[in-house]
């Protein structure tokens, strides 16, 4: 079934879009790898000919770049995404009719009307105003509920609730049916704190605005099971469009099996991951054993080598309210800290980072009242504002 769907969508793209016209539909690897810039520059050539745009459902994303990108879904894709949403949520503890506490940046395309939210059982929590006081209010509201709620939100927002529970002692165990994190790679702290705070295992989801729900963990598992009914996923090397070796981290490139109005064939998501492989090196292309976040969040050490953000110190053992590591140049880094000044603590933190970035790294500390959210409402612990050659 999966192979047939892949063949059908690729053939459809070749036969019905100007961009893919002329390509051989029977050899996926011969088709070009595309990205957001391709869709922005090619415009109408990416749409199936004869499609009435007024019947399509727009989905807007800028990721963290601030550059707008519009993905258009047809009715079949919308229905498929709705089915995926329910099916994957049920595997994390959701049951039909369970109230949903949804923590994200609201507004724009996500600013559903109040009546519609009530009908769908959604309580929106705006992460851009989720400070310590607001987090306490949310926990108290959960505890007052007579029935358990399902929690879905950015990892950093869920962390805020966990830390608020630690500070206040507010116990919401027994009031939560399940916890799903999306939009940000979960930290070690979040994985440890969610079961303690909410009495449920953390389930992380891999999704994006332009395509939908791509993969999700099973409760208690660290690997992500790909939604193979809806997507064909490839892992390609960083410097070429060749397949990565078994277990090697590379670029996540997907083909959406259901969007016929705007086919996404070999779409580079901008994310990094690796397939699972057995002891004989046989690849399991239905499982992602690692997810490393956005390509532009990767750092370079003082020798110009890639540093995976997942190996940078998480600083969970220090009394920090927030932190963010920013690379500003070759061998130059700024660590933004929301915490009281403590020279002894900072010296230990510096030693941890220099061990990863290089002993000769120029690491500067910047004390802030708040680590800023991105325009998407997410908060990234690692940012790279520099690239080699700049």
Topology:
Blueprint: H1 2-16, H2 36-42, E1 57-61, E2 69-73, H3 75-90, E3 100-104, H4 114-120, E4 122-126, H5 132-144, E5 149-154, H6 155-168, E6 176-182, H7 188-198, E7 202-208, E8 212-217, E9 224-226, E10 231-236, E11 250-256, E12 267-277, E13 283-294, E14 299-300, E15 306-307, E16 322-329, E17 332-338, H8 343-357, E18 362-367, E19 382-384
Parallel strand pairs: 3-4, 3-5, 5-6, 6-7, 16-19, 17-18
Antiparallel strand pairs: 1-2, 7-8, 8-9, 9-13, 10-11, 11-12, 12-13, 14-15, 16-17
Helix pairs in contact: 5-6, 6-7
Keywords: Nucleotidyltransferase, Transferase
InterPro entries: ANL_N_sf (IPR042099), CapK_Type1_Caps_Biosynth (IPR053158)
Protein name: Adenylyltransferase
How would you sum up this structure, described in words?
By secondary structure, the protein is of the alpha/beta class. The protein folds into three domains: 2-61 and 209-292, Rossmann fold (3-Layer(aba) Sandwich); 94-199, Rossmann fold; 298-384, GMP Synthetase, Chain A, domain 3, CATH 3.30.300. 25% of the residues lie in helices and 29% in strands. It contains eight helices and 19 strands. The strands form four sheets. It has an eleven-stranded mixed β-sheet. Strand 6 (176-182), helix 7 (188-198) and strand 7 form a beta-alpha-beta unit. The termini are far apart. One of its GO terms (molecular function) is nucleotidyltransferase activity.
């Amino acid at each position: 079934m999966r192979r047939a769907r892949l063949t059908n969508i690729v053939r459809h793209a070749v036969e019905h879009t100007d961009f893919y016209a002329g390509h051989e539909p029977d050899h996926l690897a011969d088709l070009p790898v595309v990205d957001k810039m391709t869709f922005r520059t090619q415009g109408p050539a990416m749409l199936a000919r004869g499609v009435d745009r007024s019947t399509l459902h727009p989905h807007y994303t800028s990721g963290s770049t601030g550059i707008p990108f519009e993905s258009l879904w047809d009715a079949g894709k919308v229905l498929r995404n709705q089915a995926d949403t329910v099916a994957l949520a049920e595997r994390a503890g959701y049951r039909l009719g369970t109230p949903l506490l949804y923590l994200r940046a609201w507004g724009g395309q996500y600013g559903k009307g109040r009546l519609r939210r009530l009908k769908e059982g959604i309580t929106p929590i705006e992460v851009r105003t989720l400070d310590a006081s607001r987090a306490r209010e949310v926990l108290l509201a959960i505890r007052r509920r007579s029935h358990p709620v399902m929690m879905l939100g950015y990892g950093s927002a869920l962390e805020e609730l966990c830390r608020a529970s630690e500070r206040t002692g507010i116990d919401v165990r027994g009031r939560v049916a399940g916890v799903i994190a999306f939009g940000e790679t979960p930290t070690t702290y979040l994985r440890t704190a969610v079961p303690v705070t909410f009495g449920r295992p953390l389930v992380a989801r891999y999704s994006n605005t332009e395509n939908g729900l791509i993969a999700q963990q099973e409760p208690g598992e660290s690997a992500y099971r790909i939604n193979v009914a809806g997507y064909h996923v490839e892992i390609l090397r960083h410097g070429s469009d060749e397949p990565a070796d078994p277990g090697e981290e590379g670029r996540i490139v997907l083909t959406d099996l259901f969007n016929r109005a705007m086919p996404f064939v070999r779409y580079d998501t901008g994310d990094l991951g690796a397939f699972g492989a057995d002891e004989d090196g046989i690849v399991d292309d239905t499982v992602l054993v690692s997810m490393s976040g956005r390509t532009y969040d990767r750092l370079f050490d003082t020798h110009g080598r890639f540093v995976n953000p997942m190996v940078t110190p998480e600083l969970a053992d220090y009394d920090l309210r927030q932190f963010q590591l920013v690379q500003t140049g070759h061998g130059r880094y700024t660590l933004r800290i929301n915490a009281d000044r403590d020279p002894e603590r900072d010296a230990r933190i510096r030693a941890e980072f220099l061990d990863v970035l290089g002993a000769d790294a120029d690491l500067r500390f910047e004390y802030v009242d708040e680590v800023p959210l991105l325009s998407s409402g997410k908060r990234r612990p690692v940012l790279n504002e520099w690239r080699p050659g700049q």
